[in-house]
Write a structure and sequence with these properties.
Layout lengths: L4 E12 L38 H13 L3 E2 L6 E4 L9 E4 L6 E10 L2 E14 L3 E5 L2 E5 L6 E7 L6 H18 L11 E11 L9 E4 L4 H20 L8 E5 L4 E4 L6
Parallel strand pairs: 11-12
Antiparallel strand pairs: 1-9, 1-10, 2-5, 3-4, 5-6, 6-9, 7-8, 10-11, 12-13
Helix pairs in contact: 2-3
The chain binds adenosine-5'-diphosphate (ADP), magnesium ion and zinc ion.
Length: 265
């Protein structure tokens, strides 16, 4: 008899906040300016420059935390996450590792399988990276997006299907848009979801090894990527092989994912 499998999914959702200026400097966050025109010594990581926190970012992050039933951290701080990649000239991202602005919340969703709560592990404020444009002459860097404020919302692995994932994302989007904190457009990247997925035999009480999938630009792409990754993992297990914990990039036109080199390596 064929084995039954359950899919386990947790999301990391990045949302660009609708502030006029960046998180640590006065540069404009407006989308689509000529490359490197919305930049200054702070958001291009020049020696001696110092960040000054944008109050509106904290207010939006707290509002989203309250709307998702989180506890707001009374004393929180930022941390530097080292990473060396040309899309961030500082060589570190300012984020919140130890004392995130909000934690321990939930949102209620309704899908084909009924009502349920998806728990939120934590929510932190951080800065976006720049954009790399690869063309025949090499790689070009546009730092206009460097320092655009983001919140990252990390869920617990509480979702069991693409339907539940989409219900969760729609619920978050509705709350955030209502608060005026972001326009949450997946196509334009102001809302981005990384899907962490594992499978396990039905009835098992421990989780399987998960992969993380990136580059999901629409709800349809998310649904296709979940179906594909679930089947890929089941095939591996059925063949007696192991799922490798890694980050994979989804190619929606070819409808497959491939392992990505980590920026943190
Ligand atoms: P990391 O620190 O490596 O990013 P986390 O523990 O913060 O890892 O988890 C990141 C995301 O992965 C969370 O959304 C969490 O719910 C999800 N996750 C963790 N373990 C699993 C698993 N076994 N299967 C599916 N999702 C998982
Ligand atoms: Mg993470
Ligand atoms: Zn700047």
């Amino acid at each position: 008899m064929a084995k039954q499998y359950e899919t386990v999914i947790g999301l990391e959702v990045h949302i660009e906040l609708a502030t006029k200026t960046k998180i640590f400097c006065g540069c404009s966050t407006e989308f689509g300016g000529a490359p490197n025109t919305h930049t200054c010594p702070v958001c291009t990581g020049m020696p001696g420059s110092l960040p000054v926190l944008n109050k509106q970012v904290v207010e939006y992050a707290m509002a989203i935390g309250l709307a998702t039933n989180c506890k707001i951290t009374q004393v929180c701080k930022f941390d530097r996450k080292n990473y060396f990649y040309p899309d961030n000239p500082q060589n570190y991202q300012i984020s919140q590792l130890y004392l995130p602005i909000a934690r321990d919340g939930y949102v209620e969703i309704e899908s084909g399988s009924g009502k349920k709560k998806v728990r939120i592990h934590e929510m932190h404020m951080e800065e976006d990276a720049g954009k790399l444009v690869h063309d025949a002459g090499g790689t070009l860097c546009d730092y206009n997006r460097c320092g655009v404020p983001l919140i990252e919302i990390v869920s617990e692995p509480d979702m069991r299907s693409a339907d539940e994932v989409i219900a969760y994302l729609e619920r978050l989007r509705l709350l955030v848009q209502y608060l005026g904190a972001s326009d949450c457009k997946l196509q334009e990247g102001s809302m981005r979801a990384d899907v962490n997925l594992s499978v396990r035999e039905a009835g098992s009480t421990t989780f399987g090894t998960r992969t993380e999938m990136k580059n999901l630009n629409s709800f349809k792409a998310i649904a296709r990527a979940i179906e594909n990754e679930k089947n890929r993992q089941i095939d591996l297990i059925e063949a007696g092989e192991k799922v490798i914990q890694e980050t994979r990039r989804w190619d929606d036109t070819k409808e497959y994912s491939y392992a990505m080199r980590s920026k943190e390596d």
